[in-house]
Specification:
With 451 residues, this protein is α/β, with parallel strands linked by helices. 28% of the residues lie in helices and 20% in strands. The strands form four sheets. Strands 1, 2, 3, 4, 5, 6, 7 and 18 form an eight-stranded mixed sheet that branches. A five-stranded parallel sheet has the order 9-16-10-11-12, covered by helices on one side. α1 packs parallel to α13.
Length: 451
């Protein structure tokens, strides 16, 4: 249940008893999985979820027509932890009267928009415990004259009014997702640059007339860039679209069964206990599962589109839709009302300017996952070794003498270096949500799990 939020107060005036047992910052899939695990374990706790969006939505900018999930629906927010949970994807289908129809599709990969609807359906069960429209700005340790820290002060601001509010909690989970990353300076050119995360929301506002001819660049060689390149061909059929990738070609993702075992929940233990050098080697050797790669069926579709152009025009330079390999975008320059891209030939190191200008460049260049460091900056002096490292259970490693047992801060979705490639993926969330509940609520959670 929500308690009344207080206006921001100095740390010395913070209440001695925490208002909440747990506050989760961010209410995306990771925190939603925790909420579901708490529900399934019937944990009696005061919990609040703080989310800067006005309502639950998952990757709104990439909910493209006919785009499918890349994981089995069985890797939902509950099944691998508890197949009897009411929050399984199958029970969602049953509640929507689509279970039989879905089985007729003979697929394990639902549409992305349907999976978003599934997670929104799950989230709707926890609306009384979610504070939407608030962005958290800091998490501070509350001074404790009697010893180690046992309470944390969370300050957030209303995204519409900017009014600041402060609450306290014994435990905090930070699950704020990634910040869109554009790896070049774009100051003054923002109106010509869009990140893939906002593609389907921002681009229709920029190009309202779908029949007009535009010149559009897509930057990146991964799944998001390939999906956008494919979508633009039908969304703006009279536009010229060029995709730039620093690789020699668009490459397929590896989701074969043996390789996919790296995402098995029990593999996290093995990965965590590897020496740091072995972790890095493992991550590099398995990057073809998730980074800079494209689902094979989409590659087939794109190649067929390219072939159709070749059928009518043998000169690739005249094609309306082009894939340009060996070119990394290292800068953007103004050209009248348009922009030109500064390109680096990744095979020779030479740089050049794009042959023609573009109205818009869309960057599918991933995310940065360091937002927790800014939120927790005031606690840096409490850390072991001065770094935001985490234990196997995702608890931040503060010095033993600094934080009381039964209190702490946990990180989600930013621990790939220590917990493996699956850390940012949906496939881990059901099991990890249960692990988080076990870690935070200890014997109470484990006792409930045995019932």
């Amino acid at each position: 249940m929500l308690v009344e939020v207080e206006k921001s107060t100095p740390r010395s005036q913070a209440p001695k008893q925490a208002q909440y047992d747990l506050v989760c910052i961010g209410f995306g899939p990771a925190s939603l999985a925790i909420a579901i695990a708490l529900h399934d374990r019937a944990i009696d706790a005061r919990v609040l979820y703080i989310e800067k969006q006005r309502s639950f939505i998952w990757h709104a900018g990439m909910l493209l027509p006919n785009a499918r999930m890349q994981i089995s629906f069985l890797k939902d927010l509950a099944t691998l932890r508890d197949p009897t949970s009411k929050f399984t994807f199958i029970n969602y289908l049953k509640s929507k009267n689509r279970l039989v129809a879905f089985t007729n599709l003979s697929t394990f990969l639902p549409l992305r928009e349907e999976y978003n609807d599934y997670m929104s359906w799950c989230a709707s069960h926890f609306e009384d415990d979610v504070q939407y429209g608030f962005e958290t700005t800091s998490v501070k340790a509350v001074d404790n004259e009697n010893g180690p820290v046992e309470t944390w002060q969370i300050t957030s601001k209303n995204t519409e009014t900017n009014q600041s509010n402060t609450i306290t909690a014994r435990n905090v989970v930070i699950a704020i997702g990634g910040k869109p990353k554009i790896p070049i300076a774009i100051t003054g050119l923002e109106s010509h640059i869009v990140h893939s995360s906002s593609y389907s929301v921002a681009v229709p506002q920029i190009f309202k007339a779908t029949s007009k001819p535009h010149s559009i660049a897509v930057v990146g060689g991964g799944q998001s860039s390939a999906e956008i390149f494919n979508d633009l061909q039908s969304r703006y059929p009279n536009s010229a679209v060029s995709l730039f990738t620093g690789a020699s070609a668009l490459k397929p993702s590896d989701d074969s069964p043996f390789v996919n075992e790296i995402f098995d929940p029990e593999r996290v233990d093995d990965f965590y206990h590897l020496p740091p050098s072995s972790r890095q080697q493992s991550t590099l050797s398995n990057k073809a599962t998730n980074y800079g790669v494209v689902r094979p069926e989409l590659l087939d579709r794109l190649y067929e589109s390219m072939y159709h152009q070749r059928l009518h025009e043998p000169d690739p330079r005249k094609w309306q839709f082009q894939i340009v390999p060996w070119r990394e975008v290292v800068g953007v320059e103004k050209d009248g009302e348009r922009i030109r891209l500064r390109l680096k030939n990744t095979s020779t190191g030479e740089t050049s300017i794009s042959d023609h200008p573009f109205d818009l460049a869309i960057f599918g260049t991933g995310y940065e996952r360091k937002g927790h460091e800014k939120l927790l900056e005031s606690t840096r002096g409490m850390l072991q070794g001065g770094k935001f490292s985490v234990e196997r259970d995702y608890r931040v490693k503060y010095r033993i003498d600094m934080v009381k047992e039964g209190s702490g801060v946990w990180l989600q979705g930013c621990c790939e270096d220590t917990h493996g490639l699956g850390d940012t993926l949906l496939s881990m969330l059901a099991v990890r949500g249960g692990e988080m509940v076990d870690s935070i609520f200890g014997s109470q959670a484990q006792q409930r799990a045995r019932l």
